[in-house]
Write the structure tokens for this entry.
Amino acid sequence: MSRSAAQWLQQPKLPQSHFVDSRIYTDETIFREEQQKVFNKSWIIACHESELPGAFDYRTFSHPGGTPLIVVRGEDQQVRSFYNVCPHRGNTLLYDPVGNAKRITCIFHSWSFDTRGNCVDITREEQGFQNRFCKADAGLREVRAEIGFGGFVWVNLDDGACTLKEYIGDAMNLLDEHMSMPLEVFHYHKAILNTNYKLWHDTNSEFYHDYLHYFNRVTGMLQPGYFDRKYVGYPNGHASVGSMTIKYDAYEGGKERGVGWPGLAPGGWILIDIFPAMTYNLRTSVLRMDTSIPLGPNKLLIEFRGLGLKSDTPEQRAERVRDHNTIWGPFGRNLHEDLLAVHGQGRSMRPGSEAAWVLHGREENMTIHDEGGMRHFYAEWSRRMERKSYEPFPEREMSVVA
Amino acid sequence: MGSNLPMQLDRIAIEELVYRSCLALDEKNFKAYLDLCHQDFRYTIAAHSPEIRKDMTWLDHDKPELQLLFNNLPRHISDHSPLTRHAIVYTVEYSAEQQQANVISALQVFKTSLDGGATELFAVGRYLDTVRVDGGAPRLLKRVVKLQTRQFGFGYHIPF
């Protein structure tokens, strides 16, 4: 039976932890708060250490809190991160996404900095500033940076935050044993979509949407063990999904994968969602890493990385690349389907629409089609935002009551 | 390599091969597309990522694998917006000894939305083709779609 406007707006008859108000995906105020309360206080993956192989190599990063960053490897091999902002007139210091810079020199007025963030030159310093301001006053703003959990470079804008290890806790336990060898990024691309970052993280936090993927249905859902995979929630909003054996040859023309991954059973698949918007996805021979960078409540940049082992032979690497691209590349079978779905959510939930509620209500003993992974995320989101995800503003509740 | 084609007619035939390949894919006439390809055809989509300083291969199929990709398309959920491929053949270098021509074409791909018909530039790049020219109709022996564009929004299932 279809529903009237009042019925449509009525809270679902589910526990309040099992649905959210869709305005958390569209509201500008909530988005700005998320930048401050969630992204600026969380450990975020900026890049992978293999993207900075040598001294003075740098990588720029658009931090999801809004501040542009530099990640640079110093002469001492230490990886550090700074605001990509000149302390003089606020210009961008490094324009290219990648490069090698012994000195970081602003193009505007040639102020110059070393890879430890020291200001090493202010052009015509004495003539302009006399003794009122000097290089010691003009260092870059350093951001906490740590390398870990597969060699990723993590940054945190909050100087008072806990360590990365404390932030992750036990969430990476399922993957730790598979990350002992140095990794290397072989694939990188970006996608920009008119949707909210949480909708992408939701997609990475539930497998019920395997109905979207023909590939996953035939190689996974129809295979033994699929419905035994379990979600486990961890402190700070992280979640993991246990492995199963994917039967790749069930897809027409598919072949069993040969190259594999250290310690992972053939055809194995482990997924770990890191709060607020990162996902480790180790599938058979490839580690995929998604990093979401929200550009607005309804605009999202996703960085996709594919990683293999640094020790790969050319033949092994070619096989990993092929495995990756078959399903996850820009022309792969699954990625387009996932992106199309969250694009559709963004279309229907744009500001002003009355999409009303989004359900996370499936309970299947935390197995693969249970929506507990999303519920776990929104419990942490609500805690950090000091807002209820099912009722972020009081007025809707009042209007429903009225 | 590097000599001129023996006859201007051959260049016209090669250009037409490239243009027919665009038309066939635009019309999703995959049989017609594969008919333009030699039995040893290899199709690759490649791009360079300055971000990770690496060349990337995004798709790499022989003719049977490409046939399979086309066959499986109806089983997948895809964007239905039509693409329009616009190619211009820049250079044709003929090797009489190998009975092959190396062909470089500029490629632009446009996407037109079903709802309202707005057209946007979807991708730019080049076709780097190897064409078998052995007396019969020229056939694509190898196509590398070398893309400059690396952002495609929610993407697409059908190769360029």
Q: What stands out?
A: Chain A touches chain B through 38 residues (CB under 8 Å).
